[in-house]
Every structure is written in structure tokens, then in C-alpha cells.
């Protein structure tokens, strides 16, 4: 059972320089979309970011306290 080569056509896609409106709906009403996403998910974002920011600030405080403690 030999393999026979199969001819394939190459397909090339290109945009016309006169039709550059690729995704116009993405940028339409962008501030309204951002406001909707923030107002819809503010509780989840707060519950996620509060422990992360709290842990980071505590670590910075502890590191600074250790640095000042061993100063003399």
C-alpha cells in the first residue's frame, strides 16, 4: 500500500485596503461596556483583591519593621 501524493490548493486571505472595518463593534460604547462589567462584578473583584492587597501590605510592613529592628 503506497502513499500517493495529493495536490492541495493554497488559500490566501487578505483585507482590502479600502475595507478596514474589521471589528467596529468592539470599540463602540466602550465606556458603557466597562462601566457595566465593573458594576456587575465589583463584589467579586473586591473579595479577590482585598486579601491579596492586605497580604502584600502586611509583608511590606513586616519587612520594614525587621529592617528597622536590626538597624543598631
Annotation keywords:
mainly alpha; mitochondrion; single chain; elongated; transmembrane helix; 72 residues
Distance between the termini: 85 Å
Percent of sequence in beta strands = under 5%
Helical fraction: 55-70%
For the residues shown, what is the average pLDDT? 85
Give the helix/strand class.
mainly alpha
Task: Find the count of extended strands (DSSP E, 2+ residues).
Answer: 0
Indicate the low-confidence ranges by residue numbers: none
- Estimate the global geometry from the Cα principal axes: elongated
Largest sheet: none
Main location: mitochondrion
Subcellular location: Mitochondrion inner membrane
Membrane topology: Single-pass membrane protein
GO biological process, one term: mitochondrial electron transport, ubiquinol to cytochrome c
Structure description:
- This protein has two helices and no strands.
- The protein is mainly alpha-helical.
- It has a domain at 27-70.
- The chain is elongated and about 80 Å long.
- The model has no long low-confidence stretch (mean pLDDT 85).
Amino acid at each position: 500500500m503506497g502513499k500517493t501524493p495529493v495536490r492541495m490548493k493554497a488559500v490566501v486571505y487578505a483585507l482590502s485596503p479600502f475595507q478596514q472595518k474589521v471589528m467596529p463593534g468592539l470599540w463602540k460604547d466602550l465606556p458603557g461596556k466597562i462601566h457595566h462589567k465593573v458594576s456587575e462584578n465589583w463584589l467579586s473583584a473586591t473579595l479577590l483583591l482585598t486579601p491579596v492587597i492586605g497580604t502584600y501590605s502586611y509583608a511590606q510592613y513586616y519587612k520594614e519593621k525587621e529592617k528597622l529592628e536590626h538597624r543598631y
